Structure prediction request, 181 residues.
Amino acid sequence: MTAGTTLMNGTTAEHELAALQREHGRPLFALLLRLCDGDRQRAEDLLQETLVRAWQHPEALRADDFDSVRPWLMTVGRRLAIDARRARQARPAEVGDAVLEHARVICDHAERAAAMLDVREAVKTLTPEHREVLVLVYFQGASVAEAAQTLGIPPGTVKSRAYYALRALRRVLPGYAADLR
Prediction:
């Protein structure tokens, strides 16, 4: 049945639906509001869907088996509310923007592996003296004093070689310049 279709008793479907809304809308909305835990928006959506179902099945509303259509409407509304709750529970919970702002950022392992390969290739372009200092200080975590003792050079030389090695890497790795400071 489409909107505006004339029914057997001479009234249009819109008028009948409006009368249904006036007569049973408040109690049906109260039931749906309880079933939706006080969420007015969801209850209004379910009320509208219930009335659409009534509009789609006018034969159920005209059955001579019962005096009122309210029980049929309440049953349809209750079932729609149950279906909506089940559908929400089947989906993962939604997160707001505030939660995402504080979420821990997890790095991309493929991107990190590619960066490691780039750095290894760039370190190979350094002189052996600069490479030794970088490996000890930055990759093995030695202090300047420990690197100086291991290499048998003064601490100032370790610092200057590390400085010039990083400067050379910045030229070879322009996309990583911010990471090399």
The two ends are 73 Å apart (CA to CA). DSSP finds nine helices and no strands in the chain. Residues 1-10 have pLDDT under 50 and may be disordered. Residues 56 and 103 are 46 Å apart (CA to CA).
